[in-house]
Structure formats: structure tokens, C-alpha cells
């Protein structure tokens, strides 16, 4: 068999679930004993992602003790998981560079922005494609289930891992083989039933900001979501949470406390840490200070468990912030191809995150847009531009755009052009599965015009065409400058960033 990086990706890709099951939760007979012990919510659909992971790890050659020996910081949440994980790894890496421990860090995040190998990092650096392929085929050789097409009619263990489960297995395998000292592990969308929750004895667990998202699998209320996310809490592991913007009756905080108490732990809600440096772009907008504060608390809780109370020094904290980078989140890129064109990229994809993206964009561009839209003549539009796309069976793209439009309006960020696109990277005559219906396109137009009726609306068939359209609009503007917000999905932001970096 061809054992290249490309072949590895092909094997992983074909195990992607084409559509989420619409049936109710599976019968208890389909669940492993660990899942039967919980009291989950009825909104879970299909077989939980955790099912089969422990068995497949054993087939690969890894025991529960091997996973526990990775000294894991496990992070769940709705908003800011990736940033928080990256901050925690960066703080510990800075400390390791100064003191010598941890000498080697591992970081697993999901999804990737541009390339799949971004999900797995060693000492802050994405693993090479050679390593990716080598370690993947070590798993392939030990999991005969991967040698045949995925068959959902087979029992869980016999059918083998799906796409995300396979990425999690690969990450565990890489970190064990590379003998890392610490792993910062991001959940996928859930917590209790998440594939990453195979970890029985993490050293630290942390919950980032919670909000309504993935309701089809986690449930229709914040109570359900908090229950699932709190499922990563474990006995003997520090339980941390960002300060939650709770509902009126305190349900979210109460559920998180109950979930921690069930494991004989007390959850600590982490406020903003004053030791973080001021005036640093890495900590803008303010939500990043919240994420970094939780990460700092997680890193120090890890040191408490591993090094008997050692804290991060101010040098470690400042170095950890300074070296931190998380592409696609609150990222500013100056266009090398079009002078005066500045791109603002944020892979926000739920109501909470697009509102924050709007506030960030408005604040960043407030002093840069000097020409009022009312003074522009026909054909002289320019200044602020939005590129938006969100295509997901589990979320309402029209409602998401509505939240973004309202947030931009409330921030007084007037958009001269809005460009809707699909996920195709270039125009093609072939049918794609990432398109949208004509009626949905019309609803997007109508939703936008309710908030900003003066905007010129464009529909492009590909991301490349959307980028070209935005650049042309900047070139034809009176000021010859433009600020372009790209948001709505990681599947949009990643390809745009790749185009800008070409």
C-alpha cells in the first residue's frame, strides 16, 4: 500500500460521517459499561463518540495507564477552547525552556484551519507530514477495521473509528510514541461522551465560556450543554471554569458545581489574571484575556500536581503570551497583493462568537474608516467589507448571519459590501455538497438588508472568487483602502488565509 501523507488523508476522509443520525439515542445495549453508569440527557443522537475508543487504543497497543501517563490538561467549552489550549501549552513550554520541565509538550486541537496535521503539535510546532503518515500507518496496521469501508451496521468496535475518532486516536499515539511530558487536549464538540474523554485520570480539567451550540447532540438548553461539558471533570483532577455569564437562576454554575462535586471536586471559577501583560495584541480582544487567564490557572494547577506547588514566573507568563499564536482567531493580515487592504479573520461560527467578532472588527477599524458612506458616489464604495459563509446541517446560517448583522449594526460598523460564498475554494462546474439553496440565499439577503439596507450584496461561487471580489472593491473605492472581515466558519477562514499567504 502507498503509505504517503496523501494516502493517509484519503483513508481518514472516507471515514467521515456524511450525515448525523436523526434517530433518538441508541439503545443501552449499544453502549459500553462506562456510558451506562452516567445519567445523560435524551438529546444525544447516534452512538456516542466515546464508544469504542478504549478498545481501539488497546488494539493499537496503548493501555489506560499509557494515556494517564501523558499528564493531561483536558479542556471543554463552547467558545475559546482552541485559544485556551494554545495559551496553556505556551505557558508550560515557556516554563520548560527556562527550567527544563516540561521538556516536551503536546497539543491536540480540533478542527484544523488549513492542513489536517495542524491538529497535533509538539512543542508548539505542527507535526511534519512525514511523521503524520508514519504514525498513521502504524495505527492502520493494528486496526484491521480501517482496511474495509466503514459499515454502520456492524457493532461499534468492529466497524472501527470514524473521522474525528481516528484523529483523536492518532494524537494519543503520537504523544505516547514521542514521550511528551504534558498534553493539552481539546474536546471535539461535547464532553461526557466525547472521544477525548477516554482519559480516566487527567491532572487538570477546564471549561471555557459556555453558550448555545451543537444543540442537536448536546440538548436544547444551557442545562444540557453544561451537563455534557462538565463530563470531563474527574476525581483527583483540578476542576476549573471560566467565569460564566449565567442565566437568571444560575443553572450553568449550579450544574458545573454538581458535576464536579459528583467526582469529589470543587470547581474554581477563574477571574481575569492581573499578571497578564497589558497592551499586547495577543490578548486582544478582551475575551482573549479571559481565555489566557483560564489557561494560566490550568498551567499552574498542572504544576501543582506535577511539581508540588511551583508557579509560573512573570518571565514565563510574558514569554508564553509573546510567543503565542493562533491563526484564524482575531487575526489581522495585511494584503501583500493589494496595498491598503487589511483582512480581519475570525472563525466564529455560533451566535456568541460572531457577536464578539463584530465587536472586535468594529473596534479595530473605527479609526481607519475616514470616508462616511453617505459621501460616497455610485461606484466609489470601499472601506468595510464582509465575506460570510456558513453551511452546516446542525446550525441555522440565516439566524447566524442575523446575529452578526445586528452586532455590526449595534457597533456602528457600517458595511459597504457583503459577499456571500460557498466552501468551494475555486469555481467549478461540478456539483458540490457544500452549496446552499436559492431560497436560503434569498433569506440571507433579506436578513442582511433588515439591518444594513444600504449594503451592496454579492454572491460568489467560490472562496477565491470572494477574495477577488473584495480586492476589486478595495481597488475601486475612493480611499483605495479597505478593511475586510472574514467570518462564519473555519471552512471559510482557512482557505482565505491560505490564499493570502500564497
TrEMBL record:
Gene3D superfamilies given in the database record: Mur ligase, C-terminal domain (3.90.190.20), Mur-like, catalytic domain (3.40.1190.10)
InterPro entries per UniProt: Folylpolyglutamate_synth (IPR001645), Mur-like_cat_sf (IPR036565), Mur_ligase_C_dom_sf (IPR036615), Mur_ligase_cen (IPR013221)
Residues annotated as domain Mur ligase central: 172-286
SUPFAM superfamilies in the cross-refs: MurD-like peptide ligases, catalytic domain, MurD-like peptide ligases, peptide-binding domain
Top-rank taxon, per record: Eukaryota
Keywords, comma-separated and alphabetical: ATP-binding, Ligase, Magnesium, Metal-binding, Nucleotide-binding, One-carbon metabolism
Reactions catalysed: (6S)-5,6,7,8-tetrahydrofolyl-(gamma-L-Glu)(n) + L-glutamate + ATP = (6S)-5,6,7,8-tetrahydrofolyl-(gamma-L-Glu)(n+1) + ADP + phosphate + H(+)
Pathway: Cofactor biosynthesis; tetrahydrofolylpolyglutamate biosynthesis
GO cellular component, as recorded: cytosol; mitochondrion
BP terms from Gene Ontology: one-carbon metabolic process
KW tRNA-binding (keyword) present: no
Single GO molecular function: ATP binding
Enzyme Commission numbers on file: 6.3.2.17
Family membership noted in the UniProt record: Belongs to the folylpolyglutamate synthase family.
Protein name per UniProt: tetrahydrofolate synthase
Organism encoding this protein: Friedmanniomyces endolithicus
